[in-house]
Amino acid sequence: MTEEIATREAYGKALVELGQRMEKIVVLDADLSNSTRTVLFAEKFPLRFFNMGISEADMMGTAAGLAASGFIPFVSTFGVFATGRAYDQVRNSIAYTKLNVKIVATHTGITVGEDGASHQALEDIALMRVLPNMTVVVPADGRQTYQAVEAIARCSGPVYLRLGRPKVPVVIPEGLPFELGKAQLLKDGKDLAFIATGITVKPALEAAKLLESEKISAAVVNMHTIKPLDKELLLEMAQKTGTLVTVEEHSVIGGLGSAVAELVSENFPVPVIRVGINDTFGESGTPEALLKKYGLTAENLILAGKAALQKKKEI
Amino acid sequence: MDLFKSNSKGDENLPAISTAAIEELRQKARKLRRDVITMIYKAASGHPGGALSVLDILVVLYYMVMKIDPANYQDPDRDRLILSKGHACPALYAVLADRGFFPAGFLESLRKIGSPLQGHPDMCKTPGVEMSTGSLGQGLSVANGMALAARLENSRRRIYVILGDGEIQEGQVWEAAMSAAHYRLDNLTAFLDYNGLQIDGWIRDVKSPEPLVEKWRAFGWNVLEVDGHDYTSLLEAIERAHAQKGAPTMIIAHTVKGKGISFMENQIDWHGRAPNKDEYARALKELEK
Questions:
Q1: Alpha carbon of A246 to those of A182, A253, A276: distances in Å?
Q2: Over the stretch A89-100, which tens digit does the pLDDT of each residue have?
Q3: CATH 3.40.50.150 for the B20-287 domain, yes or no
Q4: Which domains does chain A have, with CATH numbers?
């Protein structure tokens, strides 16, 4: 998988392949199977696919019942509906019960684009992260999505996998192994570290490269698993660089930035600059225009990196 | 008890029930009601009204109908019951203890710190509890998932779920009602514990669910109505549910909240409070009759 591909498309393809190897995998969707790409699984395994209609709460409960009976349900819809609409069902029927349900949400973040704020999940990581027993995974590209889908199918317990709508370039080197809970140091550095997740790994890598020309050495960590957090690597980077810049296509409240700040404030306090959506809803626009407006670009990350260096000096 | 053996053969048709067996069940139910009220008295909190209204449905299912083996309670082919109205769990706990899923001594620990018997059912803590419930409206969806799983595995196991009448004010119930009919889940039997009362008063005053029979029928269900305290009627209805092909069955069980303890019957005050010492003694006395 080397071409530019949407993470949702990679998910659809991975499901088909896994479906052949793991007969306990079943898939549920809430009338969005074309968009979430579970349609690929539905075409191949119609008896193991259940379209639940526009009933997300019911879908989560049904998945819980299938999981309680030994199946491995993958449940898909858009991120806003998977986490917000069906929150109590995810909480009580899936997380509390530790059932083996894989919630794979697509169309998360502002890159949903033209559909606007009602459809842009900017708080889903926060909502899922606070639930005990829940694993939260945000792959950086199609290649990593493919790996992540297999990894979550093989682990036991509830998982939230966060995917997006648009095509995204491949940023993960071929052959780089994927392990849940184990972050990836994609570029080393000594002055600051970008801690990025999902599609923001790419601008973080670009920013780090551009900073080099200004003699600033920035590391880039791909935090593909937000829960459980890779504490070891994070603290190592905090100690080594003295300041962290978190980057996420999500609210700066409750997501990756909060998770990182929680960790370092208790264990090795260093300045943390959080880049993300600043406590506001999104809006309509092209993904590119929105990423620019809300500061998820290499240019803005360069500014954030310099602000982090300034904070470090002030201490 | 001979009548317990009747459910181990895998027959579709339930055996005819004798008058003696009915009397035996009644005595069993009186004992279980004593357990329920003792549990709640010792916990000093809980929901006696709904536990007492649902108890006879549980007695019929767990002593006459369900294929279960407490010694092998995780057998994949066991029948399953979800108590969607989770607050009535003292009734379920009393039944599970009596059937040997866990020691009767657990009952005294209800709602206390460290107890395997939580205030609302927890499948991770209590043997025999098939699904954690408590947040209303979620059990039917889960039961649907279990029914789909049974079908995928070509298993003849059956799924039972009990809903509260107030509970069906939750929208998810109707999403699930549509799903069960759409997927033709004839291995699923639901019960509505229609005791007519919810926390804030009579259901018909708070928000009426009527016309109930027509509603469930319009959603594509086979609908039966019974006296939820009459064992023969309940058994007949369950048998008809088992015989139904291509649609799930809803058994609307007309019940009395607080059933069996005169001063609790039809009294909203007893939805969610424990008896004091004097009330507990009076309740026990009535149940010894």
A1: 17, 12, 8
A2: 999 999 999 999
A3: no
A4: 5-168 (3.40.50.970), 184-314 (3.40.50.920)
